[in-house]
Specification:
CATH class of one domain: Alpha Beta
Strand content: 5-15%
Radius of gyration: 35 Å
Shape: globular
Largest sheet: 5 strands, parallel
Mean pLDDT: 84
Helix content: 40-55%
Strand order of the largest sheet: 2-3-1-4-5
Number of strands: 5
Order of helices and strands: HHHEHEHEHEHHHEHHH
Distance between the termini: 129 Å
CATH topology of one domain: Rossmann fold
Structural class: alpha/beta
């Protein structure tokens, strides 16, 4: 009897289990469980996503966040153990630790960061060769003539970080203890387009700015037109040369006399003046020095003052470049009479005066 009851109990249990499984398999209960699991997974995913967003916002760098901290962390580094030497100065002194080599005995030689802002055919090439004639100055040329380097401000900043960390190695890099490092930057190659970011970088990194201009913008225009012709015609044995190192080459290139569009002449001259005025305004908050090509040519003291501005010992500097256009203006322009008539009695009449050799 007991055995029969026991069997009935187990049989009842089996029936209950079977009934439960049947309900589950029927789909109703299964759908309930499936829905619960789906909700649970969604909650977990949402929580993880929220956490990642919070972390991302906390670490993200915005466009005008302090530039100095970013470059120190990402690339540029300095030796904090070096104490300033000599008298106090009015510019930043840096102690770079290059990634590509060791400065060894020059490790604690302070380095001054600078940039030459200018416009094409304003004497910047000649000026830079003079600076590189100094054993303690390294100026690395027209770095941002390569378009990918100025694709956006991030690429511009990375390039400048590399230069100022003394990791930009080319013919301008010095074996001696570099005391001033910089490069040449044309105004139409990024500094005006990203003026706010660039100015912020210069201020925070202590970059001194040399704005090299040419007073006689008419002579600059002649040089631009002649250089454009040389790029196409290549009269020097099929080779284009923006700068020459012999009198014979200079005389050959000076044979070309451009025809100037007098209808748009004053507008073009005014546009150049506007660009240079904007440059002075954009970078007025930096340590800025405006230098004129004509002053450098006429009086050596101006080059001495530039060296003092860069924090190096002034000395006589020389360049192997030979000036191309030395003849009077009337002999450099084909339609001289038309140019003369157009500029007479205007604010640009003084540009017709070429009493100097610039």
């Amino acid at each position: 009897m007991t055995g029969i009851q026991s069997d009935s109990k187990y049989e009842g249990g089996h029936e209950c289990f079977a009934s439960t499984m049947k309900d589950l398999c029927s789909g109703k209960e299964w759908r309930k469980i499936s829905t619960v699991w789906r909700l649970l997974v969604l909650v977990v995913i949402g929580a993880v996503s929220l956490y990642m967003c919070m972390v991302g916002v906390g670490t993200r760098q915005f466009p005008f966040e302090s530039v100095e901290g970013a470059v120190v962390k990402d690339w540029r580094r300095e030796d904090e153990s070096c104490a300033p030497r000599g008298p106090s100065v009015d510019y930043y002194q840096h102690y770079p630790l290059p990634h590509s080599y060791g400065r060894q005995e020059c490790q604690c030689t302070p380095v001054h960061f600078f940039v030459i802002l200018s416009m094409q055919r304003s004497g910047s090439g000649w000026f830079e060769t003079l600076l590189n004639n100094h054993p303690n100055i390294s100026s690395h040329g027209e770095i941002f003539s390569v378009k990918p380097r100025r694709a956006n401000f991030s690429t511009i900043a990375r390039t400048m970080d590399k230069i100022y960390n003394l990791d930009w190695l080319n013919s301008a890099a010095k074996n001696e203890c570099t005391a001033a490092v910089g490069f040449k930057w044309m105004l139409n190659q990024g500094p005006m387009e990203y003026s706010r970011e660039v100015s912020d970088y210069f201020e925070k990194m202590g970059v001194s700015v040399i704005l090299l201009l040419r007073r006689n913008v008419l002579k600059r225009l002649i040089s631009i037109l002649a250089n454009a012709y040389d790029r196409k015609a290549k009269p020097l044995n099929g080779i284009h040369k923006s700068h020459v190192h012999s009198v014979e080459e200079a005389m050959k290139l000076a044979e070309y006399r451009p025809v100037i569009d007098v209808n748009h002449l004053t507008d073009n001259l005014h546009r150049v003046e506007q660009i240079t005025d904007d440059a002075q305004r954009f970078f007025n908050n930096t340590r800025l020095r405006v230098v004129y090509y004509e002053d450098l040519v006429m009086d050596p003291k101006h080059l001495m003052q530039v060296q003092e501005f860069l924090g190096v010992q002034p000395r006589k500097l020389e360049s192997l470049q030979v000036k191309i256009h030395t003849r009077p203006l009337r002999e450099q322009i084909q339609n001289w009479d038309a140019v003369l008539a157009r500029l007479k009695a205007t604010q640009y009449e003084t540009l017709l005066n070429d009493g100097d050799s610039t």
